[in-house]
Design brief:
Length: 289
């Protein structure tokens, strides 16, 4: 079934939504994006995603093409038009089009694209089995706090790892883990402390990461934000990833060596359950009121 896609103020059947070949998103990866999950007909952690969208645009000096109210209304309308009650909403803003030139003027008109993907978010079968990760050298640019569409290195590394039988990669820089290809990485130490990389330009400031840290603290877990090594992760009691579409995803092995004996750990399980039950209550309904 054809989706309805949003492009620069208009709604199109997906086959008719066309962006210029001169768009800087296409030629230079000069674009940023956001992904917001929908479960039970509700937008999940929307305010965090909208705020990070603004931070990414500001960092690249791309003007925000719509205002806050319009942005929220568009998220709800695209979900309604596509009948999405569970899945995700993808949004991308590029700097706009010009004849190919490394130097860009300051007055380009940004391109705003949105589409939906219907998919099961709840009852993810991987929540029960957990993921196997492989460590690889960090190779992305240094401004990883900006959510740009420069995803080639991550995509290549994840594809190669998949061919070797791993679910995802963990990037390692100067002996310390930054994050996974499209998720933040966390460990629970043997004394029950949640340790996660502190925020800086070396990793994306995950919206789910922030929500889970807040939830963990309220649930009585000690939280430490600092760099940690691959060895520390290997000897952790538990490990998990966080992202907008996988929520809390247990990690049960690193480079083929089991974590928590290769089973999903109790803290990961509990944080996932708490997150889902809270978000089912606090998510922003897409239905017109
Ligand atoms: N790190 C990277 C590199 C990502 O691509 C993502 C998800 N897009 C995340 C972390 C998780 O961020 P969020 O919780 O906001 O989805």
């Amino acid at each position: 079934m054809s989706r309805t896609v949003y492009l620069n103020g208009d709604w199109h059947a997906e086959a008719d939504a066309k962006v210029s070949v001169f768009d800087r998103g296409f030629l230079f990866a000069d674009a940023i994006y956001e992904v917001t999950a929908v479960i039970d007909g509700k937008l999940i952690d929307y305010p965090g995603h909208a705020a990070r969208l603004k931070r990414s645009l500001t960092a690249l000096d791309i003007p925000m093409p719509v205002d806050d109210d319009q942005l929220l209304a568009l998220h709800k309308e695209i979900a309604r038009r596509n009948g999405i009650t569970e899945g995700l909403i993808y949004l991308q803003v590029s700097r706009g089009s010009q004849d190919r030139d490394f130097v860009f003027p300051s007055d380009l008109k940004p391109t705003l694209v949105m589409f939906t993907q219907a998919k099961r978010v709840l009852d993810n079968p991987k929540w029960k089995t957990g993921l196997s990760l492989e460590t690889v050298a960090e190779g992305r640019w240094s401004q990883r706090q900006i959510k740009t569409v420069q995803l080639l290195y991550s995509s290549l590394m994840k594809t190669e790892a998949a061919r070797r039988g791993f679910d995802d990669v963990l990037f390692v820089e100067d002996g310390h883990i930054t994050e996974a290809s499209s998720a933040n990485f966390h460990i629970i130490t043997r004394d029950g402390t949640l340790v996660t990389r502190d925020l800086s330009n070396v990793l994306l400031h995950g919206i789910t990461r922030g929500s889970i840290l807040d939830l963990a603290q309220r649930a009585g877990l000690k939280v430490e934000e600092r760099a940690f090594t691959v060895d520390e992760a290997r000897s952790a009691a538990e490990a998990f990833l966080t992202s907008a579409t996988s929520f809390v995803m247990p990690v049960v092995s690193l480079d083929g060596l089991p974590i928590n004996g290769g089973a999903v750990g109790p803290h990961s399980q509990r944080l996932l359950e708490l997150y889902i039950s809270e978000r089912l209550q606090t998510g922003d309904p897409i239905a017109e009121t």
